[in-house]
Design a protein that fits this description.
Structural class: alpha/beta
Number of strands: 10
Largest sheet: 5 strands, mixed
CATH architecture of the largest domain: 3-Layer(aba) Sandwich
Number of domains: 2
Shape: globular
Strand order of the largest sheet: 2-1-3-10-4
Number of helices: 16
CATH class of the largest domain: Alpha Beta
CATH superfamily of the largest domain: Periplasmic binding protein-like II
Distance between the termini: 12 Å
Helix content: 40-55%
Length: 333
């Protein structure tokens, strides 16, 4: 490890007191942690990178990285105490918190909805979607949000002009298009590349709408922050370091992404350039603006979201400490 990075690591750990520093020491057994990623999409790669590169271990963590089909199942597991962390959308987190769950966003890796509205080959104009079915993964996920934003952008009323159909995981979306179960869908990478290669059409790049949105990031329980902030801090440091490695080492990132996504090299390469290089944040800081967009969308289904304070749904302490200490800057030197 480079001297400056060692210094920054010690500086951040110093903020949590001598006892926590001792617990994080190399002589102690790594803390066992369970986390889940909630979609087979390249936006989920930071924990994959952290595990495969040994970054979690370097930060004193033994992390079991598991998959859930969608954010709904992942959030249920987090609330039940089966997990300590989730890689998930801010919308799913805020929805659960509005329902009374003690969950909170601690970092945002992408603050734009990096998705596309993809339609079958015979549909080349948005107005042709009227009376058709649009596929999403599950209601309440970021894919659901993207669907509603896209339809409203074209003057279509969700669930009135266009039916919204749940198809399960992102890996099921292209198949649903191919079999005409749905006539359009909201896809993320690498599914976008796969669908276009099969002749389906892109009607809208949702990110091009320029709406700040806490699309993907790290969520945990408020109780864990209150009782074991040191663990949360180390986890966030590891993920932030993994983002830096992914941006610096394309070949390693593609190797890891290929292991989890199991798709062709061309799709992986495009996913990497869009999700990792273009949109993934070096500083995974959640902003009030990105969370306000989340709440604005939720307000149509959860009235109390309308007047909710965005700052109550995220804790940016850990990222700001890394930023102030120079830890993040050192990762890119």
């Amino acid at each position: 490890m480079r001297p400056r990075l060692i210094f920054c690591l010690l500086l951040v750990l110093g903020a949590i007191g001598g006892e926590m520093v001792h617990r994080a020491g190399a002589a102690d057994a790594p803390r066992k942690v369970r986390m889940a990623f909630t979609s087979l999409s390249s936006v989920m790669c930071p924990p994959w990178i952290a595990r495969e590169a040994g970054i979690f271990t370097k930060h004193g963590l033994d992390v079991e990285v598991i998959a859930t089909p969608t954010g709904v199942e992942g959030m249920n597991a987090l609330i039940a105490g089966e997990l300590q962390f989730l890689q998930i959308s801010g919308g799913t987190t805020a929805s659960a918190a509005l329902g009374g769950a003690d969950v909170i966003v601690v970092g945002t890796t992408l603050d734009s909805l990096v998705q596309s509205l993809i339609a079958r080959p015979e549909i080349d104009k948005p107005e042709q979607l009227k009376g058709k079915s649009l596929g999403i993964t599950r209601f309440g996920t970021s894919i659901d949000v993207g669907a509603r934003l896209a339809l409203r952008h074209f003057g279509l009323v969700p669930e009135k002009d266009v039916a919204i159909v749940q198809v399960g995981g992102m890996e099921s979306m292209v198949t649903a298009l191919q079999t005409n179960r749905i006539q359009a869908g909201i896809l993320s990478y690498p599914a976008i590349t796969q669908a276009l290669k099969l002749g389906h059409r892109a009607l809208l790049d949702v990110a091009s709408l320029g709406i700040p949105y806490a699309f993907t990031g790290m969520t945990t329980r408020g109780r864990l922050i209150r009782e074991d902030a040191g663990l949360v801090r180390r986890y966030m440091m590891a993920q932030t370091e993994a983002i830096a490695l992914a941006k610096r080492d394309k070949n390693f990132a593609l190797k890891v992404m290929g292991k989890y996504l199991r798709t062709n090299p061309a799709a992986l390469a495009e996913s990497y350039e869009i999700d990792v290089q273009k949109y993934m944040l070096r500083v995974p800081l959640t902003t009030s603006a990105a969370m306000k967009s989340v709440l604005d969308d939720l307000a149509a289904r959860i009235p109390k979201a309308k007047d909710a304070d965005p700052k109550k749904f995220f804790d940016d302490t850990f990222v700001r400490q890394m930023q102030a200490s120079g830890f993040i800057d050192a990762l890119y030197q």
